[in-house]
Amino acid sequence: MKRQISFGQALATVVGSVIGAGVFFKIGTITAQTGSTSMTLFVWILAGIISIASGLTISEIAASLKINGAIKYLDYTYGRVWGFLFGWAQMIVYFPAQIGALSSIFGVQFVSLFGIKARYSNLIAILLVLFLLGINLIGTKFSSKMQSVITILKIIPIALIIIWGLFNPAKIPAPIIPLTVGTGHSFPTAISQGLLSALFAFEGWIVVTNLANEVKNPEKDLSRAIILGLSAITLIYVLINYTFMTVLPIDQLTNNNNAAFQASMKLFGQFGGKLVTVGILISVYGAVNAFMLTGMRTPYILAQDNLLPFSTKIGKANIHTGVPVVGAFIVDAIAIVMILLGNFTVLTDMLVFVMWTFNTMLSVAVIILRKREPELKRPFKVPWYPIIPIISVIGGIFIVVSTIINQFVLSIIGIGLTLLGLPIYYYMQKKNN
Predict the structure, then answer these.
(1) How far apart are CA 385 and CA 207, in angstroms?
(2) Which of 127, 268, 348, 370 has its CA 20 to 30 A from that of 393?
């Protein structure tokens, strides 16, 4: 593959992958889980801190190892089976669930905005997947440039909501201190469930490592794109959620999937509210495109090592566009099935659980490699070592354990889907030998 992705395009992929539906549609779930404005903002800040710590930690590996993506980082540190399981989980759970969940939200908001019957929302979602598949098949360079444009466009509604909200003279009190939970909520449950929901809105930054072989200067640009992107996103999320809570009272936010639309209507009026909703649709559209751009490369990476059946077909990229065509069809086909069968909240919680299991392993990998290979050239070193990696590891363990405790069935399904890859791995190992 050609090195044709600039730092700006890599940064746009991070921001574009992360900022999507979560920032607009998770406020209703989180306020229901926390019951207070102070705890709601706290879990957003905590999710940002954990994500930044994880980004800083994993960026050291991305800058040090001249290999392609998190799959290879796990291969290098723990052994091939762990890299395969991570890639397998990305291929059948993470990327399809992201594409499916975001496309479903797009479909629901699209039919609502334009007054189309609700039963057509799934059709709209599937058409979006097929349309973006066609765009990405044109070529990596084209889809990356489009992602940069979409990232700029998606910032517009967010900026409008934040600026108008902060200067809104009719603010509703949204106390930040003291840190409390609502009546009938327990402190540990509010933090664990709220954090799990908030982290969905931060998902996506790690997928830029799949583009390591196509970034012009991966040693510097990958880590810069991840760190700057996550820092900016955390600030945006805190500000926009604070704005929502100063526009709508918490009882109107709780379990409200249209909170962003209703807040926009209050801030800008009927026409302005609809215009901002169009901007939100563009934001979700951009997120789907970013996950598609990076997701199609997961089957390709696995097939390059002959770890999947029909690897000779899956591991080929189009000689003219550089696009792994079969990988794109695999991920998008599973995504369409999830659109037809899935539930937005279930899909998002499952993918956060599965992803953070491996994110935690990647954070531990930095500590392992520091001890195992002290002479390894590290163009970027995680600052305040080992404090930052420890924050990332503790945060990851908390997310995984709390999910198992609070959502046992969901966590078992996530683990089960991941472990389904083991028979395929050992079959391919035997076949290759």
Answers:
(1) 24
(2) 348
Copy the structure tokens of residue 379. Answer: 């163009």
Contacts of 219 (CB under 8 A, 6+ apart): 63, 66, 379, 380
pLDDT of residue 275: 79
Question: 208 with 226: CB under 8 angstroms?
Answer: yes
Cβ atoms of 37 and 254 within 8 Å: the answer is no
The answer to whether the beta carbons of residues 324 and 300 sit under 8 Å apart is yes
Entry pTM: 0.81
Question: Which amino acid makes up residue 287?
Answer: A
Q: So what's the pLDDT on residue 313?
A: 85
The rounded distance, in Å, linking the Cα atoms of 14 and 233 is: 10
Pair of tokens at residue 15: 């921001």
* The predicted structure's pLDDT at residue 148: 67
pLDDT at 394: 92
Q: Residue 161 to residues 174, 280, 304, 374, 425: CA-CA distances in angstroms?
A: 16, 11, 45, 48, 48
What is the token pair recorded at 108? 């629901």
Decide: 280 and 212 in contact? Cβ < 8 Å. Answer: no
311 in Cβ contact with 160 (< 8 Å): no
* CA-based end-to-end distance of the chain: 27
What distance in Å separates the CA atoms of residue 321 and residue 299, rounded to the nearest whole number?
A: 17
CA angle 363/365/370 to nearest 5° reads 110
| pLDDT at position 40 | 92
**10-residue stretch averages of pLDDT, the chain, 433 residues long:** 71 74 82 90 92 86 78 90 91 89 86 86 94 80 67 78 83 84 85 87 71 67 79 88 89 82 82 79 83 84 86 79 84 92 74 88 94 88 89 91 86 90 92 80
Q: How far apart are CA 145 and CA 293, in angstroms?
A: 11
Identify whether the C-beta of residue 9 lies closer than 8 Å to the C-beta of residue 208.
no
